[in-house]
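Our collaborator T.R. sent over the components below with a one-line note: 'Predict the complex.' Nothing else. No constraints on interfaces, no templates requested, no preferences about which chain binds where. So this is a plain run: every listed entity goes in together, and whatever single assembly comes back becomes the starting point for the next discussion.
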Amino acid sequence: MSASDPNKLISKADKLTRLSLTRWNADWKSATVLYEQAANGFRVARDYENAKIAYEKASKGQEMLASPWDAAKHLESAAALAKDLSNWQEVGDFYRRASELYMECGRPQPASDALAKGARALEDSKPEEAIQLYTDACTILEDDGREQMAFDLYRAATNVYIKLEKYTDAASFMLRLGLAADKCNATNSQCKAYLSAIVIYLYAHDFKQAQQCYNDCYQIDAFLRSDQNRCASKLLAAYTDGDVEEIKRIAQSSAISNLDHVVVLLEREAPTIDLSTHKVSLHSYNRSLDLYDKI
Amino acid sequence: MSVVDILFRVDAICHKYEKYDIDKQRELNAYGDDVFARLYAAVEDAIQTAFNKSEAASTEKNRATAAALNAEVRRTKGRLMDEIPKLRKLANKKKDQILKWMSVLDDFAFLHFALCLGSMLSLASNNGSKVLVAFQDDKIKYYHEQVKGLTKEDLAIRQDLVLALPERIQALPDGITGAAIQTSGWNANSSQPQIKFDSPEAPLDSAYFQQSEESSQFRQEYEMRRMKQDEGLDIISEGLDTLKNLASDMNEELDRQVPLMDEIDEKVDRAAADVRNTNVRLKKTLTEIRSSRNFCIDIILICVLLGILIALK
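Returned assembly:
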């Protein structure tokens, strides 16, 4: 098949859809068929730009034909091609539209999938956009009551946050993960999420916050009874003592190694940070406690 | 008849005719009159058995058995050392109180008989009587001494024997007194003499608790093995941690897939019902189309057509 054929198909389809004096109603059905064929032809010919455009038009046709499902599908293909073209803005737009169409069909699962795909595509180039997409995807799933699917999304979002060095956001995402896991009774994931949150706080030199987080999590039964709880308490004790060797040893332990690899990397790097600064903050913390006692 | 039965029978028979066993009677009665001698004989026997045991222990390959035998030897030694003061007391006795009377009675009877005989014989001949009298004198002197108690030599011998006993008992090898006796070992605490374990009365010499090469080697080996076991267990525990993690992740994943499977199940059921419906309808339609009535009509019409064609030709 030469490249001209898809072009011809495209022009024919365009003619079908363009309203003019001779044509009062656009013939979307045949046009869509032609668009799809053209898009396939372009893809085979590796003409991604034209293929993308063809897919866009095909999806529009499907919309007109009141089949949002097919429309969404076409948009996803278009978005994948846009990713190959590194056209990031379009990628985000396409995936969003696709997810909206999926929601129209009443299928939240594919909607969140589309958003997740978009987010993954945009992780490197536009991380904030990616995070936004991840958050929206998680929201969709939570509304649908399928939190379990959201675990992976939360983890991915946390990874992006850590890459951006936005540790508080990362930790809060982990806590959201813990909450979702709690609803599904997925205790292992929950405990891992809490432990990851504590580790992230510690890496961010926010010992107080880490301690607070630990206290909060301690209230939860499932965490209380888990290995991760013991590991967390050991870790916090090691930090209060400023014992670098102990921290290194705990980082090698299995409870930490089974967390997300990004968190593990953080934990392994953690002992190298200057503990003296954290000791200062600790002293201030203790002094504030003493003041309380005096009162 | 089994071997056990034979043995039992032999035992019964021996027991019945024990009194005809000369050796045994001699043994039993040998020192029957003498408490010291009996006790001494018992101690001798014990020493001999202990010695045999220690020999067996030294040749024994199995450490546990060797250790057990050594322990027995040590216990025996302790017991024997406790018996020694008794023996000493007995050795120093000149007169055997109880048996003295028995022997005196015996001797009196014999003496009486001898005197009667002598008198009878002296009546018979004058010369023989002198010898007899001399013989009687000797006998009387001998019995006199017997009645008096042990001879001085015997007494001395007995005391020597008793003195020699402790050394002999200590000399029994029991696995503790090994090669390195010269180096000073752990000085035993002898501040509480009342409390007695299986330990000899002689002061615990410095080499008593010295670890022999064997035992220190043994201990080392034990420590090494224990360390290796600990290492192995650590590795196993790590592996188990990984397994546990994997298993719980798999568990959660399966939990996640349960509702999806339910959905698939539902959808497939619906699709299957649709297909069945369609099949039924199709079958009905086909049977209707291919019903025999239509078939006959088709054949008749075909025949008519052929007829027309032939007619035209």
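Summary for T.R.: Confidence is low (pLDDT under 50) at residues 178-190 of chain B.
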